[in-house]
Every structure is written in structure tokens, then in C-alpha cells.
Amino acid sequence: MQNGPEERVPLFRSWTAWYIIVLVALVAMIAILYFFTQRFS
Amino acid sequence: MTRTDWIVLVITLACIVLYGMYKSRSSKDMEGYFLSNRNMPWWLVLLSIMGTQASAVTFIAAPGQAYTDGMRFLQYYFGLPLAAIVICITFVPVFKRLRIITAYEYLEQRFDGRTRTFTALLFLLQRGLSTGISVVAPSIVLSALLGWNLTLTNLLMGGLLIIYTVTGGAKAVAHTQKLQLLIIFAAMFIAGWYVVHSLPGSVGFTDALDIGGRLGKLNVITTGMEGGSFNWGDQFNLFSGIIGGFFLALSYFGTDQSQVGRYLTARSVTESRMGLLLNGLVKIPMQFFILLIGVLVFSFYQFRGAPVFFNQKEIDRLEQSVYKDSLHQLQTRMDHLQFGKDIVLKQYTEDKSEHHLQSLKVLQRQSDSVRMQVKGLVKQNGGADKDTNYIFMRFVVDYLPVGLVGLLIAVIFLASWGSIAAALNSLASCTVVDIHKRYIKKDCTPIQDYRAGKWYSFAWGLFCVIAAMFAANIGNSLIEAVNILGSLFYGTILGIFLVAFYCKKVQGRSVFAAAIVIELMTIGLFVLSQYKVISLGFLWLNMIGAIGLVLLSNLLQKIWPEPADEIIISGK
């Protein structure tokens, strides 16, 4: 991912890391909610 | 409502209006008024995006939805983080680089003026109508529950926020949304805690979850598979949530000016991206918490006995009708069922045995059957037979302590104001930038633009209040219809933007013709599903519209290419 010269990415070197975090968080949330559904159904 | 509740309500609302007016100072030009001079930090952008998305209906209807249908509605939001990533990669850098005020300006630079105007008009039509409904939906519920005059409630719901929205523009909208969300989250957390606190002594939080879950209300993840095949008519499941929800979120956050206008206020691409990505992360847990309150309310009513119908106004009407005796019989039946539930619940909470659970399920099915029969009576009596929107607020009014009732009612107003204020700001910016400055008065000074922005904000506020007055006469069915209306237009609008970003060879004529065909096709599909000719959940319309437009415009470009002179004329 290209970043403009004035645009520093917070915490990471590129925005790709942020996108991966969001994807991983989504998968983790769905997995947790799946187990939550199984636990109480 | 008690005097204390009134004091809490009035003070909370007055504080928001005064705070909005205090934060009203902005430079007197379009950038200052519509985009707060593009100087907002990411956290304010995040709160503004959240405040715009979360309307009063979110807090009124979502707990009721969980009460009646379980928590599977949450899957509707699974596509949002994916959409946020795509918008951050594609939409945000282009919008920020071009320094546009509305998303539709970009379409003229990429295609032509007619495509821009067509898309802007679709947005104005859809957003204008849905904002009118955003005013009336909570007003109907509050006026029915509290006996308030509906016209006055509409005026309060849609009128007071006009003061700070007109005077302060985007800056006042963002700062008030920050304060509104703070109050909303605090009040909802207290309400959730109070539901658990109000359960019988031996029943705790996990017991309430257990009862709600065993009775089918914690069905967060569902696949939509029925009898070995996928049910395309099922509104909320994992696949419709991820795929359909992705297209809906992409349309809403990528092309709806009420959201685009929020992240264009950011001071940089980085700040816009952070606001969008973090919204994608926090929206699912936030919605989970709101839906969970609905499940807790459901468990609470297992012990306390739920009303046969949550809209008391309709019950009062039945009492005056020929259906009075039938209603009394059903109420007596419900009382007997509750008596049985009290005994079984006491045993189940002690031993958690399968036998008692099965008895509880049978009693719940019978209670649901009684509720269905009462709904039938309400319908036969000419009333609105859906009471989902009344469930949570009925609990608030009947069981929350003095003071907290006023605060929760204030929450409904604040949530409503947050989304309506952003909508008015976006409707005004689109009208000024995409219509007024193109067709009415092209050469305006910055101060004239600023004044036009204020007048259009006021005019749209007035339109929404008037639309709410008319919608109130039609009732709940229109609320649902206008929610679906968004899906009728979003697919086409998103398709136009997807072609603009990803199909570089497609020119204005092809996309414009494809947009008209696809819009008609989307309406056709919706009509067919309404008449049960096909089974199609409305979430799928966004995907079908967007993909259909991309394919058709590419096909048209191949078989009906735009002459070179037209490309030159259209300004490319």
C-alpha cells in the first residue's frame, strides 16, 4: 500500500498491517460468537 | 413520567442544544460549514460516523428485535469491516486528493454531469424520505407509550436539532454527536445492569443468558440453511450478513453523503482511514451489547410475565371494540401460562434439567401462540400488529426507576438527533454543491455559498418534519417500507461508483444507461418478491444492483462505445 509523503501510518509501517488486523478481528469475533451461540443453544 | 424524569429529560436535551450552539463557530464558506475546514482528528471522525449510523431506531428496535427473533440480526454488520477496508484503499484517497465536498462531484470528473446529477438525485430522494421516517419512527413509539401529542413529539424530535445544525454545520454536528454518544452508552449500560439487577434474587446474569439462549434468543450465528438448501428469503444469516452486508455497508459508507461527509471532515487521509477502520471494529461489539439487552429483557419477562401486546394504545383500542371478550380470554390464558412458567422456572433454575427445559419451551411456544392471536385481533381491529419497537421502551417506562426513565427517553432523542443532524448537513451539501451551484447560481461568493448552505439545511429540516407528519398517519408499515427503500437505490449508486473506480474504460453514456436499466430492474425484483413470485431478502438487492450495473455498463461500453466528440464535450 502506497502512502503519501505526509501520511504516516499509526503504529505500523503500512496500512496493510491495519487491514490484516481488522480482518483477523472480524474472523475472531465471528468465531467467538459461534462458540457463544453453541454454548447457550 | 414523574417530575424528576421531566427535569432529567429537559436538562439533557437543553445541554445538547446549547453545546451545539457553543460549538457553532466555523469559517463562513462551504468548506467550513459542510466539512469543518477538514481539520477533525480521527477519534472525532469515528464518533461522528458512529453517531450518524446509530439512529433512535437502533436503540428502540434492536432490543425488540432480539426479544422476538433472537440476536441473529447482528450478522447484518459482518460485512462492515470488509467494506471499511475497501473504502480505505479505494474511495478515501481519491475523495481526499480531489478535495471534493460531496461524493457525487467525483462522478462528473470521471463520467459526466448527468451521471452526477442522477446519482445526487437518487441520494436526495432516498435520504430525504428516510430522514423523515427517522423523525417519525421514535415519535410514534414515545407518543403511544407516554400519551404525548404526536405532532409536538415530531416537532421536538425533528425541530430542536435544526437550531444547532443550521447555525453550526458539520462542526456542531460532530461535537454534539460526541456528547450524545457518551450519554447514550452510559444510559444503555445502566439500563442493561438494571435489567439483571431486577431479576429474582436467585437468578444471575449467566442464568438470564442461559434461559434466553435455551429459548432460542442467543442465535447469533445462523447459516440460512433449511432442509439441505440455502434460503434466499432469510434476511439475516452468516452469508447474507457478510456478502449482502458488505455491499450495503460499501454503499452506505462509500457513497452516501451522510457518511462520506463525516470522514471528509478529517484532517488527513490517515485520520479518515482510522475513523472508518475503528468503526468497523467497534460496531459489532456495540450492536452485540444492544441486542443482548433485548435478550436480558426477554429473560426478565419470563419471570415477571410479559404483556400480551407491548403497544398499550392498541390494547386500549381493543378494549373499546367487539374483540374485547376475545382479548380478555387470551389475557386469562396468558396469566395461566405465566403461572405454569413461574413453577417450571423455579425448578429449572435449581436443577437445570432437560425435562424442565422442555416444559419451559412448551410454555413459551404457547405464550408465543397467544401473542400471535392477540396480534391477529389488533390487525382485525384495524391497528398496527407489530409491537417490536415498543418492547424495550415499554420495559423502560414500566420498570426502570425514576430519573432513569427520563434519561432513557433523552437517549432516544439524542440518538435521533445525531443521525438526523448529519443527514440534514449532507442533504444541504448535496443540494448546494450538486444542484444549486450547477443549475441555479453558478457564480457565488464564499459567503453566498455559506448562506445557501444554511438555508438549505433549514429547508431540509422543515421538509423532514413535514414528511414525518404525513408518515405518522400511515403508521408502522411505512417505516419498514422506507428501510427497504434504501436497498432499492444503494445498489445502483454503489454500482456507479464501482465502475468509476475499477472500470477505467467505461465512459459516461454506458454507465448512465446501465444505471437507469439496473434501477428499474431492482425495483422490478423488489415488486416480484413482494408479490411472492420470487423469494429474495432485501439485503441481496444491493449486491445484485451493484454487480449488475458493473457488468451491464461494461457490456454497453463494448457494443455501444461513446463517440470521441461526446467524451470531449463531457469534459474529459
Strand content of chain A: under 5%
- Give the quaternary arrangement of the chains: heterodimer
Question: Average pLDDT value of chain A?
Answer: 85
Main beta sheet of chain A, described? none
- The overall pLDDT average of chain B reads 87
Total beta strand runs of chain B: 2
The Cα radius of gyration of chain A reads 16 Å
Per DSSP, the total helix count of chain B is 22
Q: Roughly what percent helix of chain A? A: 55-70%
Question: What portion of residues of chain B belong to β-strands?
Answer: under 5%
Question: What is the overall silhouette of chain A?
Answer: rod-shaped
The level of helicity of chain B is: over 70%
Unreliable parts of chain A = none
Query: Distance between termini of chain A?
Result: 43 Å
Number of strands of chain A: 0
Q: How many whole angstroms does the radius of gyration of chain B measure?
A: 25 Å
Question: What is the largest interface, and how many residues per chain?
Answer: A-B, 23 and 30 residues
* Strand and helix order of chain A: H
Cα distance, first to last residue of chain B? 62 Å
For the sheet with most strands of chain B, the description reads: 2 strands, antiparallel
